[in-house]
């Protein structure tokens, strides 16, 4: 029992399936595990209109002292999911970290050296608060059904559906789903059920976590010591959390006896040596942990997708577990959106990380159409922000680097003086086949698509992405001689535009169909 926090107890509600065992319910997506990653994944999908059933074998939030630090990118995702503000309000924001060797400061960093960022570099908050806020958001989200004390005990992946057996305090029931997102934590019972491996190593070291409640005027910074006089030969880490709870991690070494080291008579002298005898504090939580760095070779297994600690585990130092887990939820959305109801076996050795639509990533396609035909069509004028855009759900990134917003300035809006379709981002796809296939896939997802519209040099389809950004996808249909013909009239066209501010007619053949006879497909 903690002094500063009371664990909520969420009620078990008898599932209707128990009363109709002859019917097997089918749902689009089941997420197993209501830890931070499972809840973020479920929220992300439900907010994008995909119905989700979230199952957890427990009935409360994370017990004890686990995740502390949440980084800027995770905060952006939490903002999008609707819990960022609560996390920031309750947590302790910090940017500066200091590293000491014995008594001397040897290194410091500032995660956000510029002023006026919307969010700090890090926020420290006990994981149970984060989870509580996520539970509240899940419960308030239409299309997201959450079930406590529902433990998945069997998984049968199929070509078109995944079958599950779920155990509850009042009996077991069966379900099927299109996609199963597995967020059942580092031990991942489902990984075991499916006989899947996770590779990596366990570090031969032990760390004591001592959370203490104390009033201290130390700055809200991360302090890390190597070989400090109060704990010679080992490292120590200090973080301030909410409610005046301070997290102290003492390195103990592999030979330490975990049970012995957890006893107050061992812990308290260590803390007194660090803080001084006069400092008043109360122990809030004590545990000893070892850590592992492990990763599954593949996160996607047909219709079963692994996310969070179930898929990858890292050392708590660097605060990467939940932080990286919140990012991997986007991959889950990408996959569940990509083939829902279309085909079953998309596999990748690693998940596609969420990428901004125009990113410095080493891919070659698609190019921005504007790069080759800028003068002939409205120039893309993106109002999108890289943070918001979810275009990567359908299209790989391009090679160019572009900035859509400055983090230190208020976000951009759409130009209110033009209709909604005017400002758009254009991407080139490989071929007409890809264009038509993409149109069919979007329409199967219920997304309205305009086109293909024939622009002679290329054909385009248009749609709005989930954030409301107008997207154009274009396939090259250039015929021999077209570019040369345009090249000849380009200066005249510009001059005509300068003088009249009316669409020049020099290349009217592009729009009235004459190009078909003027430029045969092959010469
Ligand atoms: C000491 C320590 C410090 C850390 N510090 C940080 C930090 O500062 N920052 C950070 O980002 N991360 C940190 N982490 C890591 C972070 O705690 C984890 O990465 C995070 O909890 C992983 O979330 P998850 O949702 O993947 O899994 P979990 O939080 O483990 O959740 C898994 C859920 O699945 C449920 N479940 C399991 N099996 C079943 C089943 N069969 N059926 C139904 N439900 C099931 C469980 O009850 C649980 O609710 C720290 C971890 C430790 C141990």
Write the layout of secondary structure elements.
Layout: E1 25-32, H1 36-47, E2 52-55, E3 69-71, H2 72-81, H3 84-90, E4 92-94, E5 96-101, E6 104-110, E7 122-124, H4 127-139, E8 144-147, E9 151-157, E10 162-168, E11 171-182, H5 189-193, E12 199-202, E13 207-213, E14 222-226, E15 235-240, E16 245-251, H6 258-261, H7 264-275, E17 282-289, E18 292-295, E19 300-301, E20 304-306, E21 312-313, H8 321-339, H9 370-373, E22 424-429, H10 432-444, E23 450-454, E24 458-464, E25 470-476, H11 482-500, H12 515-518
Parallel strand pairs: 1-2, 1-11, 2-8, 5-14, 11-20, 22-25
Antiparallel strand pairs: 3-7, 4-7, 5-6, 9-10, 10-11, 12-18, 13-16, 13-17, 14-15, 15-16, 18-21, 19-20, 23-24, 24-25
Helix pairs in contact: 1-4, 1-8, 2-3, 2-8
This protein binds flavin-adenine dinucleotide.
Residues 32-38, 55-58, 62, 66-69, 127, 151-152, 183-185, 189, 209, 289, 308-310, 316, 319-323, 325 line the site of flavin-adenine dinucleotide.
Describe the structure.
The chain is an alpha+beta fold and 523 residues long. It folds into four domains: 183 residues, FAD/NAD(P)-binding domain (3-Layer(bba) Sandwich), CATH 3.50.50; 84 residues, Alpha-Beta Plaits (2-Layer Sandwich); 114 residues, 2-Layer Sandwich (Signal recognition particle alu RNA binding heterodimer, srp9/1); 37 residues, no CATH class. The chain contains twelve helices and 25 strands. α1 packs parallel to α8. Strands 1, 2, 8, 9, 10, 11, 19 and 20 form an eight-stranded mixed beta sheet that branches. It has a seven-stranded mixed beta sheet with strand order 6-5-14-15-16-13-17. It has a four-stranded mixed beta sheet with strand order 22-25-24-23, covered by helices on one side. The structure holds flavin-adenine dinucleotide. Flavin-adenine dinucleotide binds next to α1, β9 and α8.
